[in-house]
Amino acid sequence: MVEVLEGEGVYLRLREFLDRLPGGFPATESGVEIRLLKRLFTPEEAALAMQLRLFPEPARVIAKRCGMEEGEAAEKLEGMARKGLLLRVLGGRERFYLATHFVVGIYEFHLNDIDREMAEMFEEYIDHAGRTLPRQYRVVPVGAAVPDGSRVAPYDRARELVSRYGDIAVAPCICRKEKSLLGEDCSRPRETCLTFGVGAQLYVENGLGRRIDAGEALAVLDRAEEAGLVLLATNARDIVNICCCCSCCCGVLRALKLEGRPADRMRSSYYAEVDPGKCDLCGTCLERCQMEALREEDGSMRVDLDRCIGCGLCVPTCPTGAITLAAKDVSPAPYANYFHNLAGIARERGLPFGKMSPMMRLVRIPVFLRVLPYLYKTGMVTPVVNLLAKRGWV
Questions:
Q1: pLDDT digits over 341-350, tens only?
Q2: Residues 334, 236: contact at Cβ < 8 Å?
Q3: C-beta of residue 67 within 8 angstroms of C-beta of residue 159
Q4: Contact indicator for 233, 240 with CB cutoff of 8 Å
Q5: Quick check: 146 pLDDT over 80?
Q6: What DSSP assignment string belongs to 165-233?
Q7: Looking at residue 143, what is its pLDDT?
Q8: According to CATH, what is the number of the domain 1-101+354-394?
Q9: What average pLDDT does range 59-82 have in this prediction?
Q10: DSSP 3-state assignment of 256?
Q11: Phi, psi (5° rounding) for residue 351?
Q12: C-beta of residue 158 within 8 angstroms of C-beta of residue 139
């Protein structure tokens, strides 16, 4: 059976477990992270969560490892999935479970039950969580900032990204909900978080969002552009989500804005530039910029390239057409998929899962999930995953 420690012991071990995942979960002097874990997990759930891996496994495999009956394990795992304490993915008709980060993951999955107390704890913790958040995202320019016919990679065209997916969901922004609970309401649209593929499946099954078609998803992007929201997508070519963010609420942008050089911390293919001969100093761009990357200098607006993250919000509303986006000379392509991105973050942090990066690069998640049940039926997957787990790779 899974060992359940008494008192704070199980939560201290869970914190260490979550910190070994690519997204990290560092300790704080105040211990707010332990208070959060106590609020979210029962001791039994905490103990079971630490038995999960960064590889999807069926309940029967997890049950055998934990010394539990398969039915009992399936019930507990499904309950934890509904509570947003782990990831659940579907392979055909079978359910598979794996560990997930605190952010992005557990925090976002508590959209429906966050209250003021939880919001206050999240707010206290966000300064620590913000260190690894930018690595999970990249900036995609708003559609109107990218001229038709220009040579732009598909992964930098938000509308083209959205149109590739048949399974899409939209959900309210938990960051704006959190700020509202704290009495710091934001006037921008709430229902702006888009999820795709396995992300959309999980959001719909857990009642976090509603399924929409590509047309409505494109309308969400249009409203986001009008409201001056930055598009933050999964740092991968095969995306899981696009968040429409503001720097007054979003944990990622808030962390970036405090940086001296936000452009160095956020993946982006572009930067804004101003034609001084066309600029009439109307100031519209100042109101749109979320990173305070624009300033008046020598009779024209100038772009601070250390702060510009290439979101393009300043481009479509410039009345004189003085601002355009320019491609960076060197801009690394996004990772292949969500797990390739996690492996890249793990490699940067010196974690063992980083060694899985070459393998993760080859994975096509929809295909992988379709064949996953058959891989387990062969009996060959579990020994391999167990071997990788002994090395700390999954």
A1: 999 999 999 9
A2: yes
A3: no
A4: no
A5: no
A6: -S-EEEEE-HHHHHHHHTT----S-SEEEEEETHHHHHHHHTTSSEEE-HHHHHHHHHHHHHHT-EEEE
A7: 80
A8: 1.10.10.10
A9: 96
A10: helix
A11: -90, 150
A12: no
- Cβ-Cβ contacts under 8 Å for 7 (sequence gap 6 or more): none
Whether residue 170 contacts residue 111, with contact meaning beta carbons closer than 8 Å, is answered with no
For residue 138, CA distances in Å to 54, 148, 211, 305 come to: 22, 22, 24, 17
Instruction: Please count the other Cβ atoms lying within 10 Å of the Cβ belonging to residue 267.
Output: 21
* Contact call for residues 14 and 50 (beta carbons, < 8 A): yes
Answer yes or no: is pLDDT of 3 > 70.
Answer: no
Quote the pLDDT of residue 129.
64
Convert the pLDDT of each residue in 189-243 to its tens digit. 999 999 999 999 999 999 999 999 999 999 999 999 999 999 999 999 999 999 9
Reading the block at residue 199, the tokens are: 């992300």
**Across 165-169, 352-356, 387-391, least confident range:** 387-391
CA–CA separation, 106 vs 85, rounded Å?
6
What is the arithmetic mean of pLDDT over 46-71? Answer: 96
Identity of the amino acid at 284: T
Reply yes or no: is the peptide bond before residue 363 cis, omega within 30 of 0. Answer: no
Task: Centre a 10 Å sphere on the Cβ of residue 180 and count the other Cβ atoms it contains.
Answer: 16
What sign for the dihedral angle of Cα 84, 85, 86, 92?
negative
Alpha-carbon distance of 123 to 251, in angstroms, equals: 9
The predicted pLDDT at position 298 comes to: 87
φ, ψ (nearest 5 deg) of residue 213? -95, 175
Buried b / exposed e across 41-76, counting CB within 10 Å, b at 16+?
Answer: bebebbbbbbbbbbbbbbbbbbbebbebeeeebbeb
| CA atoms within a 13 Å half-sphere pointing along the CA-CB vector of 363 | 22
| Domain extent listing, the chain | 1-101+354-394, 125-327
**Cα 122 to the chain's mean position, in Å?**
16
3-class DSSP assignment, residue 305? coil
Residue 300 is classified by DSSP as: E
One-letter identity of residue 205: E
